[in-house]
Amino acid sequence: CTTDSISQELKDLITKNYSGEHIEVSSDDMDKISPQTAPQGVLAVVHQKEQRFDISEFKNQLVLVLDDVQDPGNLGTIIRIADWFGISNIVCSLKTAECYNPKVVQASMGSLFRTAIHYLDLEELFQLNVETINIPVYGTLMKGENVFNADLKSSAFLIMGNESAGISDLAKTYINKPINIPSFAVSVDKRPDSLNVAIAAGIVCAEFRRRKINA
User: Fold this and answer.
1) In degrees to the nearest 10, what's the CA dihedral of 38, 85, 113, 43?
2) How far is CA 63 from CA 19, 33, 105, in A?
């Protein structure tokens, strides 16, 4: 942490809760160390988590599946959304952004350390699903059923697609519950072509959890 840009209260909190070595540096040094343009005054060096993948553990869970989500900011935001809605596992395609990218870490706001991120070939994932737990696979598609009317299961895979290309043709073949977020734009001709993938994930996850609460 920096010596001159954070409060004494925060310094005391770090000292109390962080068992590792605690080093204070100047703001100039922090600017050199941090990849951010305007560092917040605190950096931590931590071990990356070793994730164990066992599809049987997904049987009674809502699991997010990210199909080639490329933007680090979007990935970090989705991780934060998942953490908020109690989604403890996210499966990423092999071409999805690296979860330890500094921009992902920053956007996740600590949720990265509470959420298990698995990188897998999606065809392998969904074949395993068919052979083992066989839970439904939802995906956000333009021709899907209105998510606010659809039958949403609390145990399921939920696929969110690439920012520009959407869900890949391969992943689409495994979707048995296509859903759609309806637009309420006044004019069809003037509405946006799509929603940001992180915003879409937040809307759909909120609806899944609302159904669970009201079940």
Assistant:
1) 20
2) 33, 36, 20
